[in-house]
């Protein structure tokens, strides 16, 4: 009995599946409508998600300490929202900023049968579910019972606490601990191994769709004074749509010039770029560089959610803000939110490098190559190539991005658990090593006037509420240039310029090259120490 509960564990533990071609997992259960899965999920906190297929969905409980075969142990289980059937065999990484960001393995799977009842939904409503699991690890009779006298309906969003226990039966094993059996039944991998090389990433929770052709037609049809615009099912009030945000220029792009860019076109840019941008914005407070009268007038920084922020736009209170600092931030999580920000004159978007889930824990490490007045873009390219070599040597994944103005940045994803002190120090250490090889190019002066026009390798933005411009954000400069992630090899493209892509050319860039930085979103990467 006990020995049969995890028959493949030893088989898996004795093999290193990264170097052998032997099958490491088990076949998934047939989709007969009665599957169950348990995913080991390292999000903000480790937990196990127990999901029972019924009524076309996965009815789900989050079990912080995991299910056990030990009949003496009761485990707390929080009834959480139903998940789509697509999620059944999901194993990979949920990007940070997404709900449940972290790594997931398919810890167990199989089928389940209801005991002593006919209808699983009414048993769940009644708060008392007896069932048998037929899995690779979990077997025998389990009970899920709601604690206290809570009503069946949690009232939309409330999370009920239940208890999960194993009955005394032939499959019970005293002292059985799920943490002793960590590997995936799907791939044989551990959470660490999945985090290091995620084959999949889950972005199915939210719709990051851009506007439909009909919605764009409706935007074009709005009168100059504006009106209500519906995008993605949310309604946003737009105004002064023909206001010029970027005046026409004869000089940029070189040899072509451009005609004026209106606020309407800026709103179109941000909503059409939403699917590419939102992976970098979702879950993060945003600092806006606002130019409500267009770039002919001086812009200003604005962080606070204004009183007319729509109800559907996520807001977050930074409860640790010091007196006089902004407390109420906007967290853009939809195309409509980006339309609202653009209408508000937020030409340039700077997301935090941490999320609202833990504002003191960065998820990106940023390297900023900031050219001085006497530096050229070629200088920035030399430095970027040196960083490329250094990161390759350190086996650290990162990707460059042109700023749309003069410089280059390198974005490096990091695992949970680092502080801003860690990332700032790490970037400073790497930067000083690189700067030492080209001392004639680099200044360490913070004060611009003392930099003698040299390039600065700025590590100081790795701090809470310090930001760099978002991928695909516009920049407040002639021609409406855009900050765009590029591949390392594109550093050697003779046509590369820091402002190569603009509001007019970004759609083609995205269609042909996609976003080379996207695979790094949410990557749980450790920074090597020195
Ligand atoms: Mn979960």
Q: What is the number of E strands?
A: 26
Which sequence of strands runs across the widest sheet? 1-2-3-4-9-8-7-6
Number of domains: 3
User: C-alpha Rg, in Å?
Assistant: 26 Å
**What is the share of helical residues?**
10-25%
- Small molecules in complex: manganese (II) ion
* Number of contiguous helices: 10
Largest sheet: 8 strands, antiparallel, barrel
Category by helix and strand content: alpha+beta
Query: What is the first-to-last residue Cα distance?
Result: 50 Å
Low-confidence stretches: 1-23, 149-157
Explain the overall architecture:
There is one protein chain. This protein is α+β, with helices and mostly antiparallel strands and 530 residues long. It folds into three domains: 199 residues, no CATH class; 139 residues, no CATH class; 127 residues, Alpha-Beta Plaits (2-Layer Sandwich). It is built from ten helices and 26 strands. The strands form seven sheets. An eight-stranded antiparallel β-barrel has the order 1-2-3-4-9-8-7-6. A hairpin with a 3-residue loop joins strand 7 and strand 8. Helix 5 packs antiparallel against helix 7 and helix 8 packs across helix 9. The longest helix is centred in the last third of the chain and has 18 residues. The radius of gyration is 26 Å and the shape is globular. The N terminus is likely disordered. Manganese (II) ion binds next to strand 2.
């Amino acid at each position: 009995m006990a020995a049969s509960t995890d028959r493949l564990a030893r088989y898996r533990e004795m093999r290193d599946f990264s170097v052998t071609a032997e099958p490491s997992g088990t076949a998934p259960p047939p989709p007969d409508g009665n599957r169950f899965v348990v995913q080991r999920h390292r999000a903000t906190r480790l937990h196990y998600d127990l999901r029972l297929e019924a009524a076309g969905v996965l009815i789900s409980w989050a079990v912080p300490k995991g299910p056990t075969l030990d009949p003496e142990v009761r485990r707390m289980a929080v009834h959480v929202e139903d998940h789509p059937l697509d999620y059944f065999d999901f194993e990979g990484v949920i990007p940070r900023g997404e709900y449940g960001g972290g790594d997931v393995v398919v810890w167990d799977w199989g089928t389940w049968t209801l005991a002593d009842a006919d209808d699983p939904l009414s048993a769940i409503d009644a708060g008392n579910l007896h069932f048998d699991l037929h899995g690779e690890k979990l077997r025998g009779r389990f009970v899920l019972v709601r604690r206290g006298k809570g009503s069946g309906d949690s009232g939309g969003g409330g999370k009920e606490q239940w208890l999960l226990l194993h009955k005394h039966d032939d499959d019970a094993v005293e002292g059985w601990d799920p943490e002793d059996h960590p590997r995936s039944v799907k791939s044989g991998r551990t959470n660490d191994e999945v985090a290091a090389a995620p084959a999949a990433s889950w972005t199915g929770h939210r719709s990051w769709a851009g506007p439909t052709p009909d919605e764009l037609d409706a935007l074009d049809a709005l009168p100059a004074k504006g009106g209500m615009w519906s995008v993605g099912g949310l309604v946003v009030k737009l105004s002064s749509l023909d206001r010029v945000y970027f005046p026409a220029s004869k000089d940029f792009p070189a040899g072509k010039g451009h005609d004026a860019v209106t606020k309407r076109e800026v709103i179109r840019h941000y909503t059409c770029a939403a699917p590419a941008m939102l992976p970098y914005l979702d879950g993060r407070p945003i600092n806006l560089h606002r130019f409500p009268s267009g770039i002919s007038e001086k812009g200003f920084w604005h962080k606070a959610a204004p009183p007319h922020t729509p109800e559907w736009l996520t807001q977050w209170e930074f409860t640790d803000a010091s007196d006089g600092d902004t407390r109420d931030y906007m967290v853009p999580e939809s195309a409509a939110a980006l339309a609202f920000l653009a209408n508000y004159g937020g030409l340039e978007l700077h997301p935090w490098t941490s999320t609202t889930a833990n504002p003191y824990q960065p998820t990106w490490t940023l390297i900023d190559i900031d050219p001085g007045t006497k530096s050229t873009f070629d200088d920035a390219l030399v430095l970027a190539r040196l960083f490329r070599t250094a990161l390759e040597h350190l086996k650290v994944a990162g990707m460059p991005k042109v700023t749309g103005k003069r410089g280059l940045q390198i974005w490096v994803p990091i695992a949970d658990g680092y502080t801003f002190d860690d990332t700032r120090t790490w970037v400073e250490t790497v930067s000083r090593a690189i700067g030492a090889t080209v001392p004639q190019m680099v200044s360490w002066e913070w004060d611009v006037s003392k930099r003698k026009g040299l390039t600065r390798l700025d590590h100081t933005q790795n701090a809470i509420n310090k930001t760099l411009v978002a991928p695909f954000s516009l920049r407040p400069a002639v021609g409406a240039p855009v900050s765009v992630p590029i591949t390392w090899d594109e550093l050697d493209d003779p046509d590369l310029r820091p402002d190569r892509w603009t509001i007019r050319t970004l759609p083609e860039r995205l269609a042909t090259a996609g976003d080379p930085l996207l695979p790094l979103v949410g990557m749980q990467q450790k920074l090597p120490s020195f």
